[in-house]
Amino acid sequence: MTTAVRCAHHPERAALGYCSACGKALCAACLVRLSTGNYCETCANPPARPRPARRFPWWAIVLAVLVVLVLLRAILR
Ligand SMILES: [Zn+2]
Ligand SMILES: [Zn+2]
């Protein structure tokens, strides 16, 4: 039984399947069967992720660089 795939969460248990989303090996207790396939608990119930922090828009950086260039030209003239 050395070749048996073990559950990612329970090393002592044999895996029955794999998560369709992350590919984790899962035992009967960890396997979540959905209509779309088998999933681990994490992928079956993804935690509500907080919205990522709004990134500084790229056009604002371009605009700032242009303004600096125009100001430099005006100063150096
Ligand atoms: Zn998963
Ligand atoms: Zn398990």
- Number of discrete helical segments: 2
Mean pLDDT: 89
Ligand inventory: zinc ion
The total count of strands amounts to 4
Along the chain, the helix and strand elements come as EEEEHH
pLDDT < 50 stretches: none
SS strand fraction:
5-15%
N-end to C-end Cα span: 81 Å
SSE class: alpha+beta
Strand order across the largest sheet: 1-2
Q: How much helicity do the residues have?
A: 25-40%
* Main sheet specs: 2 strands, antiparallel
Which features would summarize this protein structure in a list?
77 residues; alpha+beta; two-stranded antiparallel sheet; 2 helices; binds zinc ion
Q: Can you walk through the features of this model?
A:
- The chain is an alpha+beta fold and 77 residues long.
- The chain has a domain at 1-46.
- It has helices at 41-44, 58-76, and strands spanning 17-18, 25-26, 32-34, 37-39.
- The protein has a two-stranded antiparallel sheet with strand order 1-2.
- Strand 3 and strand 4 form a beta hairpin.
- The longest helix has 19 residues, at 58-76.
- The chain starts with 16 loop residues before the first strand and ends with a helix.
- One zinc ion is lined by residues 19, 21-22, 24, 39-40, 42-43.
- One zinc ion (ZN) binds next to helix 1.
